[in-house]
Amino acid sequence: MCGIFGYMGKSNAPYIIHQGLKRLEYRGYDSWGISTIEKGNIVTTKDTGHIPESIKLKTNPTTVGIGHTRWATHGGVTITNAHPHYSTDRSFVLAQNGIVENYTELKAYLEKLGYIFDTQVDTEVIVKLVEHELKTTKTLREALIKAFKQLEGRNTVILLDSKSGQILAIRNGSPLILGVKEKDIYLASDPLAFNQYCRDIVEINNGEMIEIKDGKYKLFDIKKDKYINRKPREEKLLEIDIDKEKYEHYMIKEIVEQQHTILKATEYTQKQLQPFIKRLKETENIYTIGAGTAGFSADQIAYYLRKIGKKNAISIKSYETESYLENISPNDTVIAISQSGETADTLEAVEILKERGVYIASIINMPGSTLSRLSNSYFMSNAGSEICVASTKVFTSQISFGYLLSKTLVGEYTDAKRELRTISNNLEDFFSKKTFKQIENISKVLKEKEHFFVLGKGQNFHIAQEGALKIKEISYKHFEGFAAGELKHGVIALIEEGTPVLSIVSNDKNVKDLISATQEVKARGALTIGIGDKQDTDCFDYFIEVAKSNDLKAISNVIPFQLISYYLAKELGNNIDKPRNLAKSVTVK
Ligand code: F6R
């Protein structure tokens, strides 16, 4: 969350920074700010809301500056709270990505020393701390290092100094990467922000500081107190596919792309999978971890590894790994799942497990991400850039790969590939005008309701949860996904006349249970919607028949939820690609 950008070079810094921030906007879009140095002074333009397509900056063309796009943690969304933040003498500005976890203590300490705070953001604590350290250090870089070492939490900061004309940045946890092209130097939370200009990157690790001055950069290890010589290397970065083509929103484009992306995610040959399959065969337990949609992916992949792969696979939410950590041993294998490869909760769990000698494999969509670097091995989802904040195509890519892995474990690689091709072909027919119209019409009915329940079982249990998450993210309606078996144990108390209940029904051994559950809610007045394989029953008020599949029903069944989410949000006039309060990459805890 929050995007950081810095630039020093031959081009017009305000323009480059604005373009970079637009590309980082997926990390947060509450407010933004750009600071540049003009005639020795720092000039800043800030505003709340989305970064406009073109902006009228207070600054003239200049060659150095920093920028920030914010996802609020401490303090409301106001221009005052927007980064970068000035030092008291206005000689430097600082922007941050992360959370200063000891913010309260540090603020109290600084207030006692007489510092006065103008904002509610934790970043101001860093600024004041640097000012304070500057009283007893010779240089600003020394003061920054001393201040930075007092911060708790995963923080990355960038500072622009008008006196020396330099940019300083330190990374701990929250991502930061350097791009170099001759005399042009870029610094950003994600290389996507500058990969239209340069491909040569320098990785910055935790505890490293970057100093950019006079068109040159220097890397410094703040723990070992010494300079590091790290040459740029060319990285195959993900292209941002900013073309919406014929679609009105990225979300619908990305939903339709799934017929192709599930195949791209599973292009691995048996030979390529072999070393990891060998490891999985020998491993005692497999733990899958992830958060949010990637967490449901982790659940579904663990389900496939148990049900198909015959392994003891346990899914854990990244932010709830603590009670498991002691029991995970080097004889086990952890599979971390993450679109961005930068999710703080997932990285923190992986860092701890790695230290304990546990083998980490990951499924990621972002080349060069922190998770890929931390992992012993990784598999790319190859879904291309997913721009809509709500994840759709990456979710199905992840579970397709998990399915391929599970089938390969039991010698059924070819069968899995056949099934993936079948579902891909059937999805092509499913994405028809007729389907879109039907879901649009159902969404018009749902628009009037507030609370919704989604029921699933077995292969569809986690799909009920992911389906509900997808709809609440974009429509802001209260959807809850449950195991159908849970209904009678409490949830049914919430069913009243007109309550919409969406049941996922597949032609599998659970179908009877799902139909009984639907009958039970219908008897209590629920509005019933079936999603799945066609059923010979009159218990559904509406029925969405999904793309045909054999044992990959999770994919066919999740897609109608993505479409309901889309059409419902459209009906409600919500911002589909950038829903409120969310960010695509959750780099804070
Ligand atoms: C929901 C969504 C989030 C992410 C979660 C983890 O649509 O996208 O729930 O899945 O924040 O992100 P990654 O996959 O980047 O680790």
What would you note in describing this structure?
The termini are close together. With 589 residues, this protein is α/β, with parallel strands linked by helices. Helix 15 runs parallel beside helix 17. Strands 3-2-4-1-10-9-11-15 form an 8-stranded antiparallel sheet, with helices on one face. A 7-stranded antiparallel sheet has the order 5-6-7-8-12-13-14, covered by helices on one side. It has a 5-stranded parallel sheet with strand order 17-16-18-19-20, with helices on both faces. It folds into 3 domains: 3-238, Glutamine Phosphoribosylpyrophosphate, subunit 1, domain 1; 245-430, Rossmann fold, CATH 3.40.50.10490; 432-574, Glucose-6-phosphate isomerase like protein, domain 1 (Rossmann fold), CATH 3.40.50.10490. The radius of gyration is 25 Å and the shape is globular. It contains 17 helices and 25 strands. It binds fructose -6-phosphate. Fructose -6-phosphate binds at residues 291-294, 338-340, 343, 346, 390-391, 473, 585-586.
List keywords for this structure.
single chain; alpha/beta; globular; Rossmann fold; seven-stranded antiparallel β-sheet; 589 residues; binds fructose -6-phosphate; 3 domains; eight-stranded antiparallel β-sheet; 25 strands; Glutamine Phosphoribosylpyrophosphate, subunit 1, domain 1
Helix-strand blueprint:
Blueprint: E1 3-8, H1 13-24, E2 31-38, E3 41-48, E4 64-70, E5 85-86, E6 92-98, H2 103-112, H3 123-134, H4 140-148, E7 155-161, E8 167-172, E9 177-181, E10 184-188, E11 200-203, E12 208-213, E13 216-221, E14 226-228, E15 233-234, H5 250-256, H6 258-264, H7 270-282, E16 285-290, H8 293-307, E17 312-317, H9 322-325, E18 333-338, H10 344-355, E19 359-364, H11 370-374, E20 377-380, H12 393-409, H13 413-430, H14 433-446, E21 451-456, H15 461-475, E22 478-483, E23 500-505, H16 511-522, E24 527-532, E25 542-545, H17 553-572
Parallel strand pairs: 16-17, 16-18, 18-19, 19-20, 21-22, 21-23, 23-24, 24-25
Antiparallel strand pairs: 1-4, 1-10, 2-3, 2-4, 5-6, 6-7, 7-8, 8-12, 9-10, 9-11, 11-15, 12-13, 13-14
Helix pairs in contact: 2-3, 3-4, 6-12, 6-13, 8-12, 8-15, 12-13, 14-17, 15-17
The structure holds fructose -6-phosphate.
